[in-house]
């Protein structure tokens, strides 16, 4: 408990407390089982959800629940969640600090190619220049590499639908090699600890 | 730049097997963004997909002219926008975009209940009610629910095949309404910020209620998501959103009048009151183009249009329009975020004045809490205004003062 109390993380602790008091620790544990105890995923295929913008988490949970973003893993978990539960979950995870989870030294060539591709595609305009995300737009910095790669391909190939079509358009015609490089670069971009806010 | 846009537009419609070395097209909302604005942070505002508790809806901040009362009438309608009322006005149906639902609000006198009629649709923004049936238009689907106001279990008929819907999604969420001729009017927006739209787009069509008799009645339309008919002249008035990335001050959104079927409203060559397009210049591009009856403000997002025919409001409002302006994003300072009252005077000249304000704080940064989208009239003459941002409906009523009204 104590290390959490450093650096003004009271809000996160209070939210966690509130959540555990009001509708049980079970839901949070359900999330944590796959996305990591602290919201930073130890499974390369599964995204980190700590320090994601609150509105982004809310929106994705609603899209999963409404079966507009299709996922066999997420649907049973979110089915029956009320909007108020979703708001609380989003509040909780958005306030947890992000950690980069990719181990091993980065591949310099891939990093360079990824950085160039990110500049060309202007990812930073929506995701912000440090890729920390904003509002409905996710944090990419420090996200799991394999997950990023799979999702970008899914967007490009029209397999991740629901919500807006902006990402499908942004990744239109981008090569597999560029997507791999983007995932490598973004997953290793340094993560900014998120101040409470949108 | 022109080449780049042409390429982007071509790419958007090309078969998926495009060479992988070509640059990706920007998202549709960013097409036409000039190179000098490439680092612009302007982007469409995020919608909200979860319920906003009634206690968080800041209805006390809303201001209307003296004598009018504004109250929160219904909430718990995330993404709710266009409204269609049943004949007796006891049911209000709302379409949505991303969240994919159609809601039914039941008026039980002192309170309202909300249920989801249908969900998991692709942007079912269009709702209309006629002869006991609810019509729902998603981008790729048309459903008709017979007798739904009295039978919550009514199953839909799928009329999709009858309506010949083109496949592009951008700007092809719908507003729909039945005209005084009994026909169903449906817009097909231009699937881009700026482009020469393929022939199925950039137009408004009308159909018989069963989907037969398709007829294109307006062309050169960028993205209209609101219209109504003048109670006396029966002419159709429709709003149309101006293009983005041509600067803070234009081209302005339009309020157009369709005097005769087949008129051309200028897109993509001629905007607002005769502004030539920056990316698609064309000699005589404004020739034969029907000019708007009123400019609705740059990037203001003029949406729902409703002629007032009730008896509750003062007589000066009779046969004038209420138009919701959802509010700008492609502008450094906010524009819109209000409901305006528009009067068409002698010779077709129109004027606009504010009616409902207070969604946005101040004139500088974007500090809005709500976004008015559509207007409907209740049987008693009160107005309903939907707020797409917080998923709510406000009711505006008028109390005739006992003493003579103060002059405004």
Could you provide a short overview of the structure?
The complex is a heterodimer of chains A (198) and B (408). Chain A has 198 residues and is mainly α.
Q: Give me the CATH superfamily of the largest domain in chain A.
A: Cytochrome c-like domain
Radius of gyration of chain B: 21 Å
Instruction: Give the N-to-C terminal Cα separation of chain A.
Output: 25 Å
Helix and strand sequence of chain A: HHHHHHHHHH
* CATH top-level class of chain B: Mainly Beta
Poorly predicted regions of chain B: 1-22
Tally of alpha and pi helices of chain A: 10
Shape field of chain B: globular
Q: Which percent bin holds the helix content of chain B?
A: under 10%
**Largest sheet of chain B, described in full?**
5 strands, mixed
What is the β-strand count of chain A? 0
Number of strands of chain B: 27
**For the residues shown, what is the average pLDDT of chain A?**
86
Q: How many H/I helical runs of chain B?
A: 2
The CATH superfamily of chain B is: TolB, C-terminal domain
Largest sheet of chain A: none
Whole-number total of structural domains of chain A: 2
**Which stretches of chain A are poorly predicted, pLDDT < 50 over at least 5 residues?**
1-8
Largest interface summary: A-B, 34 and 36 residues
In CATH, the architecture of chain B is 6 Propeller
How is this structure best described in words?
The complex is a heterodimer of chains A (198) and B (408). The longest helix of chain A has 14 residues, at 10-23. Chain A is an all-alpha fold and 198 residues long. Chain A is globular, with a radius of gyration of 17 Å. Chain A has 10 helices and no strands. Chain A has helices at 10-23, 26-35, 54-65, 74-78, 83-94, 108-121, 123-127, 145-156, 166-170, 176-187. Residues 1-8 of chain A have low confidence and may be disordered. Chain A has 2 domains: 2-94, Cytochrome c-like domain (Cytochrome Bc1 Complex, Chain D, domain 2, Orthogonal Bundle), CATH 1.10.760.10; 108-187, Cytochrome c-like domain (Cytochrome Bc1 Complex, Chain D, domain 2), CATH 1.10.760. Helices cover 51% and strands 0% of the residues of chain A. Chain B has a single domain (65-398), classed as Neuraminidase (6 Propeller), CATH 2.120.10.30. Chain B is 4% helix and 32% strand. In chain B, the strands form 7 sheets. In chain B, strands 10-11-12-13-17 form a 5-stranded mixed beta sheet, with no helix packed on it. Chain B has a 4-stranded antiparallel beta sheet with strand order 1-27-26-25, with no helix packed on it. A 4-stranded antiparallel beta sheet of chain B has the order 2-3-4-5, with no helix packed on it. Mean pLDDT of chain B is 91; it is low at 1-22. The interface between A and B is medium-sized, with 34 and 36 residues.
